[in-house]
Amino acid sequence: MAQIALTVHGRSYQVTCDDGQEGHLVKLAEYIDRKLSELEGSIGQVGEQRLLFMSCLLVADELFDARRQIDGLKKGETPLDQAAASNQGSGGGEAQASLALESCAQRIEAIAARLQEA
Hints:
The protein is mainly alpha-helical. The chain is 69% helix and 12% strand. It has one domain (2-117).
């Protein structure tokens, strides 16, 4: 078992993990730290606990959306963003990625707006 220090929002956390998983956990902590920073930049300082909770909601939303898309692909369904991109002709892969990113950004902004109103 390995023990590493992960830093999120300026705080260090000691975490025990299986040998070889250190790099993966560091990437996860960096991702969470970025989400916290982005959210704090868009809504300001609302308290660390609330900020952490809101970031968790955003990450959970991303996870559920990804699972929904994976389930749809397994069933042979085509997400609307992919269908629109494939109708545009050349550059389908890049266009699909661009549309997917834009859609995610819009959902995150909508969630942040709802959370800010709460």
